[in-house]
Amino acid sequence: MLYGVSTVAILLIALGWKFRRRAKWHMAFMGAAFCVDFALLLYIELSRHAIAHVGRSMMTAQADYLLYFHVSVSALTLVLYLMQIRSGIKLFKGWEPGRQFHQRAGLLFVACRLLNYATSFFIPPS
Question: Exposure of 121 by Cβ count < 10 A (0-12 exposed, 13-18 middle, 19+ buried)?
């Protein structure tokens, strides 16, 4: 089920990318993707206590570097989501100097979100 929800978020991001030149559609798809991803994050934390699991794994002798990479990419994705929302709203209000930043940060965001998606298949449920 979680992979399905994550796939929906990826598809919404792809639609947001496709409609990047139509601001209202772009914002609708990307906003929906953020809501789906944030709800997924909350569900994983509340049902699996993911943060505590990562903390416990850091205290053991056996390091799970893929898990650490996944968590790092996930955290960066969340930060980039917030940056994209902020810069996108400013851009929508006419802040043209921010267009290049929004585009470049968007590429980084998509790369991080795809890495998050790919690595999630290799992280066993806690």
Answer: exposed
Q: Is the pLDDT of residue 44 over 80?
A: yes
Q: How do the residues of the chain divide into helix, strand and coil, expressed in percent and rounded to 5?
A: 85, 0, 15
Q: Which long-range contacts (CB under 8 A, 24 or more apart) does 54-63 make?
A: none
Whether residue 98 is contained in a domain is answered as: yes
H/E stretch holding 26 reads helix 23-48
The predicted pLDDT at position 47 comes to 84
CA nearest neighbour of 44 among 15, 99, 1, 77: 1
**Treating both helix axes as pointing N-terminal to C-terminal, what angle do 23-48 and 65-92 enclose, rounded to 10 degrees?**
150
Q: Say what the pTM is.
A: 0.87
Range of the domain at 67: 2-120
Q: Is residue 15 part of a domain?
A: yes
